[in-house]
Amino acid sequence: MANLLRATAAWGLFSCRGYCSRIKQGKLSEDFVEALKAVVGSPHVSTAAAVLQQHGHDESMHRCQPPDAVVWPQNVEQVSQLAALCYSQGMPIIPFGTGTGLEGGVCAVQGGVCFNLTHMDRILALNTEDFSVVVEPGVTRKALNTHLRDSGLWFPVDPGADASLCGMAATGASGTNAVRYGTIRDNVLNLEVVLPGGQLLHTAGQGRHYRKSAAGYNLTGLFVGSEGTLGLITAATLRLHPAPETTVAATCAFPSVQAAVDSTVHILQAAVPVARIEFLDEVMMDACNRHSKLDCRVAPTLFLEFHGSEQALGEQVQRTEEITQSNGAFHFSWAKEAEERSQLWAARHNAWYAALALRPGCKGYATDVCVPISRLPEILVQAKEDLKASGLTDPEDTEELRRVEAFAQQLGRRALALHGTCTGEHGIGLGKRQLLQEEVGAVGIETMRQLKATLDPRGLMNPGKVL
Amino acid sequence: MANLLRATAAWGLFSCRGYCSRIKQGKLSEDFVEALKAVVGSPHVSTAAAVLQQHGHDESMHRCQPPDAVVWPQNVEQVSQLAALCYSQGMPIIPFGTGTGLEGGVCAVQGGVCFNLTHMDRILALNTEDFSVVVEPGVTRKALNTHLRDSGLWFPVDPGADASLCGMAATGASGTNAVRYGTIRDNVLNLEVVLPGGQLLHTAGQGRHYRKSAAGYNLTGLFVGSEGTLGLITAATLRLHPAPETTVAATCAFPSVQAAVDSTVHILQAAVPVARIEFLDEVMMDACNRHSKLDCRVAPTLFLEFHGSEQALGEQVQRTEEITQSNGAFHFSWAKEAEERSQLWAARHNAWYAALALRPGCKGYATDVCVPISRLPEILVQAKEDLKASGLTDPEDTEELRRVEAFAQQLGRRALALHGTCTGEHGIGLGKRQLLQEEVGAVGIETMRQLKATLDPRGLMNPGKVL
């Protein structure tokens, strides 16, 4: 949220309820299943109910909608052949990576064939001098960073889950390091895409990994964030960064949201190259204290991290401390040792579970919006009022899911009213299609529809998502 | 060139020859001209030969191809009405900013109406807390930075010319600061675009200026670099940066191209946040010495600049010096005083004129390519050999233009062979359409053609460019 200052507040908890249910079966002809098997081999096709069910949902609360078959292609040629087969038969195609999305992007709303791409998990090329790497769709961000360990380089984009990198490209993912290193959008140099009819597209030309170009339309940018609705990403060329020499983390508690936001603006205006800056409200801090055994003050808090040389960090730390103090910070706490630092960020990464622990036996409902940073205090105040008015904090409420959905929609509208976006990093998926229309307007939606119709004239690529 | 290390070498000089010639006239009906005048008023429409001629070329060597009329809309509503009028009459539309392009992007190859957008020159909004500004198409990069002078912010993208910012967005421009601040592509948050038929599109939704989003297809990225072939950019929301507290510049001479490139890679791997890094070969250095009265060693040379606090710069300078020395640098020269620094960068910015001065009475031919940084030495060696073989350095040559064009095409192909791009910042325009096909391949070109046909079904937006 908020111009790369991400804010996390404890809202959106509701009672546990039945999850995956109806499984459509027998929609596929035997011939068609045989044709799939002819491409990838029998062991790599499944129509087993349990498998279909497992592939019909992500980590969101969207109802499980299973595909009619799951295939595990082993290479890009098979992806291409499968896509051509499905497309010619009018069969929906749903790409599937780690299934860690948060907006129902993998739900097979019209059935069809789920392409599980995790068997394609090779790192195809690493160019350390050019700061680039090429990965197949089964490679996750943690696997890549493990591979890079001795290279002096790393890939900094870190959404909560250990998502696949190609899935992150498809979703437009982000994470805690975006303030310094950008989102996935800023770090994709080239994509290999199987178009719906099976054709192979290299968005920046085959094998290319330059950092800037003015050559023709930006196809790479069009496919990043397209959520599998324009094609299947079968390889991504990513930009790497030098691994930080030294890292220091900190927390800083403030008397108000405004003071935390003002500090953030001043830190950025002072060009302090902060790597991570995350805001947690007092309810979230309390939850983190309890869950992760922290001893932080229960107040609006910034989590910060700096990357650089020993000497550079000393100066960054000092400047930041001065800025926060001049904005009335209560308390500043630096964590320099690796152990202390990872405890802090583990607490931040476990914020979701800390929130869940506030109401044992409940499930969480995740949403995200983004506003210009100057509007962050407003939207936080508004959201807290909405939350109160919604009665969602009443544990006796029996109709919570509907109301938490209404709250998330309202939060999206509030972000739009403050010149923001209804999603900074989770994507549109199933749940935010109406909000997208309000965000980009009639001409924007019509333009997107035209692009979709051009690249997927039969409407078979991950149907029902985004538009 | 080269992964944001830009390299400049002295090639491409040829004899002066006749420039603008044939003026088509009388292609427009009186009724149509009257209709144009009814929208913008008589003083803002011209069909005078001199005006048409002036609008038929940019700063490249592409032959002048004048439009049939020039209009100066005063606001976006007029742009929209004019576009609708032209489109309904099958009349080509050519957007025109400062006319400083380098690939013939404004040549009216099919005649039509040139939209000179320089009368729309307001800065519509400045949000210092959110680091954003909204500019109309008549605002140039220098005008914006003058406006920002007391805000503590600046806009760092700096192509050679004082181009209009919307024109820079249309072209996909870059400049000397790209290594730290990115190209124009990384710094456009939103665009207001008049589509060919007159409809108004806000690529990220009206009034929005957040820094990250995962909401739908990336329309902003599609229009950046589209060279006026998809619509007319009538306003751009740009990302601003904190103005550097202190600046230090330096030059460093090397025994070889390889040593300069190795130094660059090591500087980047060490995460030294260098703001500018430019390579000049020994011929170019010699020309700069003569033209700008510098006293630099005639050798392959890096021009560097660092931005930051006094303390941070001290460390950056020291590290960089160590790295270059370990790579065998001959000579390191720091320029800390503003005057000394601007003399250095003025010399770099005047490199074009320094090259021209090597052969008085000649015109220059500009081209650009970009390769992964590890391949820079190869392409420089290859290009120098090609240059020698081409006979272009022979002043008695009477057929130079054809040969310099052939040399530029060959340079583009060499970049492609080294996994690079045929243009890092000048665009495709008229001259590099064949190279673009080779760069992105048949499926890539077909995808671009489909996008063009979708957004401009009658093919009237800046026809003959890019594709």
Automatic annotation (TrEMBL), chains A, B:
One of its GO terms (molecular function) is FAD binding. It is found in: Mitochondrion. Residues 63-243 form the FAD-binding PCMH-type domain. Pfam families: FAD-oxidase_C, FAD_binding_4. It catalyses: (R)-lactate + 2 Fe(III)-[cytochrome c] = 2 Fe(II)-[cytochrome c] + pyruvate + 2 H(+). Gene3D superfamilies: 3.30.465.10, Vanillyl-alcohol Oxidase, Chain A, domain 4. Its cofactor is FAD. Its EC number is 1.1.2.4. GO terms for biological process: lactate catabolic process. One of its GO terms (cellular component) is mitochondrion. Keywords: Acetylation, FAD, Flavoprotein, Mitochondrion, Oxidoreductase, Transit peptide. Interacts with CSRP3. Belongs to the FAD-binding oxidoreductase/transferase type 4 family. This is D-lactate dehydrogenase (cytochrome). It comes from Myotis myotis (Greater mouse-eared bat).
